[in-house]
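Collaboration report, partner site 2.

Our partner group contributed sequences for two proteins of shared interest, and the home lab folded both. The records are reproduced in the order in which they were received, starting with the first partner submission.
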Amino acid sequence: MPYHLLFLALSFALIACQPPDPTQPRNSPPEPEPEPVEAELRINEVQCSGDIEFIEVINTGTTDVDLRDWTLSDDDDPDDPSEIADVGTTLLGPGQLTSVEISTFGIGCDDETVFLFDPDGEPVDTAEPPTPSLGASWGRFPDGTGAFAEVVPSPSDPNALFAVDPWLDDPFAEPVTVDLMISEADLAILDDGTWSEADRVFVPATFRITDEFGTGDPISVGVRQKGTTSVQLASTGRPGLKIDFDRYVEGQHFRGFTKLNFNNQSQDPTHVHEQLTYEVFRLVGLPAPRTRSARLLINGDDRGIGVLVEAPDTMHYLRANFDSTFALFEAPPWLDLDTPSNAVEFDLDEGDDGPAARQDLANLMAAIRDAPAATFYASLDDVLDWDAVLKHIAAEVFVGHWDSYTNHTQNNYFVHTDDDGVWRLLPWGVDQTFAGPVNLYGEGGQGRIPIGCVGDPNCLGGYGSVGVLLRGCLGDLQCAEAYEDALLEIGETVAASPYLGAGMRDLADHLAVPNTAHLIDGIDVFLEGRPAQIDRWTACRRDPAACEHCESFTVDARSFIGCMGPANFDTANADCGARDMSLATFDSLDEVKRAHGELVRRQGPVNYWVGIRNMTWVDGMPLDLDYWVTGGGPSCGVAWGLTGEWVDWPCNQSEAYLCAE
């Protein structure tokens, strides 16, 4: 054997015979090579609307990251030096934040994406900042891992959710005082716009508020007239006003609000309707403005009580209630959603002012107009958020909002669509709620829709002044039952929420408005009786054979029968006659009030015929009692559902009725 081969053989033998190293496990695998650690940087905050634009970056990993060669841009091409900002030159530790003031490119709100690139020029994160509420930026919450939301601007510091001041959160709180100083010349300009929308312009004013925190500093704002039938002169009355906090001082806000409305509540003698109504909407999960009662002073003159109302056309309100907003339209009075040519008349309050939003509204109207009666519900499922729409309509009906979309005016509503093209209704102008019960199935110029019309499009066609979404829904039994379910849910929720009535009474005590105690009592009756009324009407519609159309009771041994109707005056009196009775006549106001109390406890706060025609009892006896709201007249007598007071009413209207022996 050659010597060099013999030497190699002996060397291998010696190695094989060496004892194992006791510090190493026997048969251990080879040590793996360490894997490279991937940097975990993310965009954490973007400010696109302030005086200083910045982008904040966070290290969400577990090791330090060398920031050299990491870049930010509003362009997906990382090689364009004019659109690049360097993240930094130091190490960024785990959980640490760094912010970069952007000067090489502008960050556009709503229509731009910002990119974070790693040293290889690969995009690792993006953000699409919308226009935030005044005083807010767009950031992740919690930091690094959460979804983007409005946050308090905090470059290089942890994010906190942005929220406007909670002073509007309690609608039943004591009123604040709003003190406006307006020059005589500008008061005259406001007066010029009292009756004409075209002549309404903003004028400068000084705004100061006194509340539980004391008297605030005066700030410069813009104010202009608002309202239609409720308007009053700014120089002498209590005007409804739009208050714009950044009209003349860019970027100014008041406790997070850029706009507020002062509603004069001239059509609400109690001054509690708006606060209570919007609280009902919020209670059942619907978007609604927040409110606070307020006393208005103009140049030191006390103009009386109204209410501050959050403006729906602000980014904070929209972002608090919707994931996205493509367009928000305010509807003009008397225009429904089934005529595409009406789209040009709707005011675009938020969204792209191009043709796309208005065309989408016209497309919605065409879809509603063309939806087959038998499949109205299913045909519109892709363009309407039916759950929200039906709950909105049910809430309007529940609170007796007659001057609304649902009933004969098609008034006081907004329509909102998100980026997915799904539409919803939003409430507005609710000062005339709780003034009387609205028929559960809608009512218009042709009267109340009777239960028997539900599921019958031909019958419903005679009630064209009722909002098309309710009218069309009632013609499709699947939709009608979904609407009834929404009514029942609202009734159950309100019945289980006694704080509504208690809060309303607390507010009434704070306001101490003279001569309204009976109206406040009537609202209590409404809140207590409306859920039972809904239960009864829906049960009767779903099972007519089991329905007790009329119910008897006694007052001081005298027999009465209350019937749901609806029927016109002559038909109602004839039905009473068939029972050996007549429409109810009375000997005293005490008997009137007691009979009313017994009826509404059984049937809810329903308007009903009593036996008055042309200021005479139907039995021919002279009418020697006065329980009129505003004086009698030559027509027929209806008892108002809230208080039982009488109203002169067209005899051909359809109402419930009260018979008496």
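Second partner submission, folded after the first:
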Amino acid sequence: MANEMMIGQLKTQRRFWFQVHLYLGLTLGSILSIVGLTGSVLVFWMELDEFLNPRLLHVEPRPGGYRSWEEIARSARAALPQGAALTELYWPRHRSAAAVGFYTEPNPRAGNRLDACNIFIDPYTAKVTGKRLWYSAESWWKNPFLGIMFKIHYALMIRAWGVPLVGVLSVFFVILTLSGLCIWWPITGKWRSALTMMWTGTATRLNFELHKAAGFYSLIVLLMLLLTGIYFNLPRQVVWLIERVSSVERPAFPVQSAAASLPLTLDGAAAAAQRIFPNSSLYEMELSAAGHDPIVRIEQIVPLPLGLASRRHVTINLENGEITHLADPLRAPLGTAYIQWQWPLHSGHVWGWPGRILVFFSGLVCPLLLVTGFARWLWKRRKKREQWRNGTSKTWARAGTLAGTLLLAVHLIGQVPEFNFYPEFRRWWFALPADQRQTFESVVERYKRRLSAEGTPAEEIDRRLQLMRTRRTELEADFWDRFFTSSTPEFNTKPNAFLMSVVEGRPAGRALDVGMGAGRNTIFLAQRGWEVTGFDPAGKAVALAQQRAKELGLTIHTQVALDREFDFGQERWDLILLSWMPPNEVARIVAGLRPGGIVVFEGPRTWFPQNGLLKQFDALRVIRYEDQVTRSDYFVQSDIPVVRLLAEKPGR
């Protein structure tokens, strides 16, 4: 009796998971199929690229072997267009393959956002054999076939929020997969029937058996691919979760000299990395976008026992030969090791060719499961036509509701309905004259009087003022998240023109972008070779900036914080930018500047009394000051009175 009760409970639970599986499959099955199919194509993207583009990727083997890394890099850089920067070099895959470089180039038709391009070099002669566009900043549909496949696979060709969308959807794909396991589980103990496939019977029965077998035998690989895919699309969120149970860090390698002859060449750095992992094969080098940063990161494929393989990163300072970092999952803490195994597992390289073939077929299983699952649903629908006549609309309504919920979860994350009044208040506050915005509390009181005059109910006034006084940080973060991720931007998306004129011809150094927003100026400075840090309270905007930088092959350092929370440090920065950002922390800004460092400011004149900006920065030497009517970068984007300041810290 107890056993029958348990089986009854398990059947009830199975019916629940069947509904979950059904609605998720109907809603998301086609998207999973697209992701799976493109993933199968990309398993062999390098081989496929050589097949599709032999003129670019095939070379004639010559006696004497390859030229050096240094010669190949020098030849590639010499052939780049003006303003372009070489960021990566891939070593030839075999004797008849070209060396492949990645470089970025400003696209004037896309507001000078960077195109990612390839350059191909004959490794035997170090001569450039061709170039091509890889990722277009103007439109992803201008990418080559494989470039489009990549963008479909991890972003569904949605530029602004496709990457996090696919990451969130992958969480639901995991639920879809696990719910299938719950349905498959033989609660009556008939394991043989569950683990084997019947090849006889009707077409309907064969379809069911195929769906069951394909789902079960691909389960482990599919879960591995989905979980690793979640990391690549939502890295910060995954790292945050891992940090709850284990540390995630980049382990420092004991400082040592890589070679006796200093400074090192790229070849010396590659040889040093090879000495650390003698049986490894070189895969690629990540270079400085500016071309003069001494740090180079070398990636190697290292064979392991049982036919496994892993990836290692060795970071070397070319100036002094120091090996500054070593990414080795076999020596790292558990959390770090988990992160470092993501690429070998997701690509199948961990098992070599058999692993890649396994991943290839696992991707094909996704459309197979969609077709067989949908056929099964149609068959049941026909069988219970009368019962389903009233129920079908409910099924699709629930599926549509789930799809809408998923999209809203990605697009509106971080937006709090009770904060809806704040954007209007913020714009009103922005337009106030300087003498009416001395303190935040005085602005709040003025706002209270305005609401009363407009007839706003007292309860609503009290609610708003209470939020503004107790949850101002959250209000600011929510406002700027909405502002910077809006589909109709109310700001200039190009780099600030005043900043561009200031850094022209100036040596790069360490820069800080105060109130970085979506990173338009942060990325511009990184493209010009600056080591850039930016911060902003808008977490979604900061994440968007990191995503764009990653797509462009750039490194930027970011932090989600208000200016009063950020640590400016002591003499850390060569440039501090306040582009349409009130200078609320002048003393700490000045302290954070190195001697000879500069402050670059642009903002509305209404923020200051007469000559107020100059008085705030009177500890610095003014190099340039402008007070004129010109086009605003924010909100109205029309001609308004604007002040600009370039000031230097004395002492150099």
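Feedback sent to the partner group on the second submission included the following. The two ends are 88 Å apart (CA to CA). The chain is about 50% helix and 20% strand.
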